[in-house]
Amino acid sequence: MQNAVILINVEKGRIRGVAERLADLEGISEVYSTCGRYDLIAIARTRDFESLASLVTERLMSVEGIRDTETLNAMQVHSRHDLDAMFSVGL
Amino acid sequence: MQNAVILINVEKGRIRGVAERLADLEGISEVYSTCGRYDLIAIARTRDFESLASLVTERLMSVEGIRDTETLNAMQVHSRHDLDAMFSVGL
Amino acid sequence: MQNAVILINVEKGRIRGVAERLADLEGISEVYSTCGRYDLIAIARTRDFESLASLVTERLMSVEGIRDTETLNAMQVHSRHDLDAMFSVGL
Amino acid sequence: MQNAVILINVEKGRIRGVAERLADLEGISEVYSTCGRYDLIAIARTRDFESLASLVTERLMSVEGIRDTETLNAMQVHSRHDLDAMFSVGL
Amino acid sequence: MQNAVILINVEKGRIRGVAERLADLEGISEVYSTCGRYDLIAIARTRDFESLASLVTERLMSVEGIRDTETLNAMQVHSRHDLDAMFSVGL
Amino acid sequence: MQNAVILINVEKGRIRGVAERLADLEGISEVYSTCGRYDLIAIARTRDFESLASLVTERLMSVEGIRDTETLNAMQVHSRHDLDAMFSVGL
Amino acid sequence: MQNAVILINVEKGRIRGVAERLADLEGISEVYSTCGRYDLIAIARTRDFESLASLVTERLMSVEGIRDTETLNAMQVHSRHDLDAMFSVGL
Amino acid sequence: MQNAVILINVEKGRIRGVAERLADLEGISEVYSTCGRYDLIAIARTRDFESLASLVTERLMSVEGIRDTETLNAMQVHSRHDLDAMFSVGL
Amino acid sequence: MQNAVILINVEKGRIRGVAERLADLEGISEVYSTCGRYDLIAIARTRDFESLASLVTERLMSVEGIRDTETLNAMQVHSRHDLDAMFSVGL
Amino acid sequence: MQNAVILINVEKGRIRGVAERLADLEGISEVYSTCGRYDLIAIARTRDFESLASLVTERLMSVEGIRDTETLNAMQVHSRHDLDAMFSVGL
Questions:
Q1: Which residue intervals define the domain Transcription regulator AsnC/Lrp ligand binding in the entry (chains A, B, C, D, E, F, G, H, I, J) (predicted)?
Q2: Contact state of B5 with A3 under an 8 Å Cβ cutoff
Q3: Less packed terminus of chain E by CB within 10 Å, N or C?
Q4: What confidence category does residue I53 fall into, taking pLDDT thresholds of 50, 70 and 90?
Q5: What b/e readout covers D54-75, taking b as 16+ CB neighbours within 10 angstroms?
């Protein structure tokens, strides 16, 4: 599984709508509306690197109301949970 | 469950060590070593707000080699997964 | 009580108007027009975390003339005053 | 009453200690440990401008563990609360 | 006397016009067109804090061509000159 | 007369001491301790450009406790006051 | 051979299209869509300095959808590969 | 002779045109299209301070396609060349 | 093949030494000393994602004199060259 | 002739000394102590690209008191002066 953290700022007044649209995208497991310098932070968990690339460079951008994104690929994951098993259900 | 995304930079050459120590902390479910402007991104999932506060203002800082952290509390979570159930095992 | 500090920049020439509108919102206890890098700083004091989230991600943004906001949730409060009692009147 | 919002970053691992020391200072009514780009945000409420100046340029800096502060004076306050009356007790 | 330093950027090609308009405002004693990161720096010297607040949050913004301002209130003044006497003529 | 605005940050806890030392320097007419992103703002008013250069590149730096300075030369001055006459006394 | 690294941000939703157009330009050997603060990073490898200058100041800008570029000329190249030989085929 | 370095960013695709127009302005001796964070860097060499001020606050801005400028006045010049003599021809 | 662009700043006076050491690392195909905001830019071309992760989070940091790195993984590569074939020799 | 603009910040109190040392270096034609965000700006004019690279990556850094440099290579020069002829004397 390939993980990435996506930092997102949205157009004024569209936080909730964009969050809901993003959470419906295949490959996005969670979207947090966060305090601080980013409006939303999405966690991408995709089958492989190619799916991540297509999610980030194409499908993500089809969501209306996004102003700016910055994708931070995970190079390694450290967790006591078996994230692969846990999230495979929804992939 | 209270979630937060924690952006972390570490001292030179200590990425892997800090990541492993953080992943062992109660309340931290995953630690990603990421590309881009942050060295590590940790996801905190705690029982309530008080646990998150104590994790972030005290226990996190006991890990050697951390240079800088910025905690971004989740105000809302959007997900097709039942994150509460999935992560309760490890809490 | 859940507190947050909200850093706000407004459209040119609208400082006073936005400040007055914000101060009328339920959950905002005070709005300061400040010197320095932010135009306004609002203090949110809400019953619980959910009210804060709805204030910040929805109601706040209905005020015309706001250009940019950044919400900084309080994780802990240190005060010799009983803020809960003092502000409960206006909540 | 003269109000100011003070944005504070502290040395690693000293958030709670500095917060408690600041909250004890005359003229500081509340100290929040916040998420996001500042470690602590203190609210100063002083009798007049001179007290604020002495608090910020001298007494504040006697607290060990502070790394950086930025004071944002309130030029105007908008509130449905009578902040002067409420906080005069503790001044 | 209440002093403040106001950092100003203007719309392209309007430095001189904005500077002249600002210098005519009651409460602004001098306007410098400066090298470096700001286009203009104005010095405000007003009778009291209220006059400064109204100058900065309202009258200043009526000048066409201003893009951005940041007001830095003086908390203390150190000078071998009697600035109060010198500038009272023009207040 | 050549004017410049000098933006200054000082070492922790030294705001007042540095301000007093600077105000004593020939060529510095006023020093403000300000709110916001700079600790001190000094106004230099020197006979000519050479005096300003020597003040800024040499004498200023002899004051202990200064951490960082940025000098913004005035290219033009707009004022209803006769600043040359007013400040010539102290030059 | 003259090398340069070109950091590029594009208009929303145009990452792939711009990348393909850039990769077709004579003098651009590779275009990476990257994670982090830039959308695309292109490597320019031109015969000489003049070709690089014309590529960067003119031809590059004819590609629709580019928002911002920053060119970082290579002053020296360190490699165990014979880059001149390898890329001469495609120049 | 009064020197200044002017850092310039231009509208997309207009680097060469703006450079040529600037190089024709009286008082501008050279315009470099540079790599890195600025598009163009111009060197101003004027008879005196007043000419520099009028060049920078008025004539420079008449060139179409400039987006942003920042002028850095030279306070002192160190050179083994007699710049005054060399450039007087073209002034 | 997995590509990444690594932005690097080094300790003062160590540009050439660090560049040579980096160019010797397995997985680094080229190191450019560049103009502008970064001292060095290295191109990593590794067999797979795991090799990239171990290069970036461990081996890179063993080189003395590096101050700061930021790794930008390539998610997609666009090139008329067969980079896989060209660089496989040196992998 | 290869030109570059070098933006330089120096250690506190060393502006003049560093400027004089830099102006003595072969390949540096002028050093300006400037107002604003950089302490010194040097103009490099070297025979060719290799000389510039060795000046910037090695000889420049031998000057004591430099804290930070950023070199901006000129890709094109626009001037009504024959800079090659004028500066060849001193090269």
A1: 6-75
A2: no
A3: C
A4: very high
A5: bbbbeebbebebbeebbbbbbb
Q: Residue F69: what pLDDT?
A: 95
Mean pLDDT, range C3-28, rounded to an integer: 96
Nearest residue of J to residue H24, measured between CA atoms: J80
Residue-level pLDDT at F57: 87
Residue at B89 is within a domain = no
Name the pLDDT band for D15 (thresholds 50, 70, 90).
very high
Cβ-defined contact of B76 to A29 (cutoff 8 Å): no
H chain contacts of residue F2, beta-carbon cutoff 8 Å: 49
**H34 — contact with chain J (CB < 8 Å)?**
yes
Range of the domain at I83: 2-88
Q: Looking at the partner chain, which of I49, I57, I75 has a beta carbon nearest the beta carbon of A56?
A: I75
- Residues 6 or more apart whose CB falls under 8 angstroms from that of F53 comprise H75, H76, J33
Average pLDDT of chain G, as a whole number: 93
J9 touches chain F (CB under 8 A): no
Residues 6+ apart with CB under 8 A from F8: F18, F22, F38, F39, F40, F41, F42, F66, F68, F69, F70
Chain D residues inside the 8 Å CB shell of B67: 12
Nearest Cα to Cα of residue H39 among J7, G25, G56? G56
- pLDDT one-digit tens code per residue, H34-68: 999 999 999 999 999 889 999 998 899 889 999 99
Q: Is residue D78 within 8 angstroms of chain A, CB to CB?
A: no
CA torsion E32-E35-E37-E42 (nearest 10°) is 0
How many helices and strands, by DSSP H and E, does chain C display?
3, 4
Question: Sorting pLDDT into bands at 50, 70 and 90, what band is C45?
Answer: very high
Residue B87 forms part of a structural domain = no
The CATH number given to whatever domain includes residue B9 is 3.30.70.920
Q: Is residue C42 part of a domain?
A: yes
Domain count, chain H: 1
Q: Is the pLDDT of residue B41 over 60?
A: yes
